[in-house]
Amino acid sequence: MLQKSTRGQNPGDARKWYLVDAKDQVLGRLAVLIANKLRAKDSPNFDPSVDQGAFVIVINAAQVKLTGKKEVQKDYQRYSGYRDGLKHFTAAEMRASHPDRMIKEAVWGMLPKNNIARKMMTRVKVFAGPEHTHAAQKPETITL
Fold it and tell me: Of the N and C termini of the chain, which has fewer Cβ atoms inside 10 Å?
């Protein structure tokens, strides 16, 4: 009888680093790729209860593409917790002020809402331009 088993991650196992160029990539498709790398869903040892995903570096976040009329119709919200503290931003305003948040919020929406996912989000490094500060980790480039 075959028994299915999953090998757990050892503390000594090094996580991989991946580099993704977001220039002219569709936001949702890019977020799926990043979320799958964070969760290690492409690994044969995938276990949803074990955090064994990789680090993901995203460059050119300001040049990510939105399809249709999402640039003016997509709505982002921030709530301060105070009365009258709800603020609305369009995708164009978000791209102008915080292009990294567009990608982080899209990836967050594709992860389960638990402690493991909050830890996974710390491994997403998003940069608005083409330069990043993680060259010493020798990231492997991924194309969509």
Answer: N
Domains of the chain, by residue range, sit at 17-142
Question: Residue written as tokens 């757990």?
Answer: 8
> What integer pLDDT is reported at residue 11 of this predicted model?
59
Query: Which ranges of the chain would DSSP assign to H, the alpha helix?
Result: 27-39, 70-73, 91-97, 99-108, 115-121
Residue 14, pLDDT > 90, answer no
Residue type, 21: D
**Could you confirm whether domain 17-142 is CATH 1.10.760.10?**
no
Q: Determine the average pLDDT of the residues in 57-81.
A: 96
Handedness of CA 129, 130, 135, 138 (dihedral sign): positive
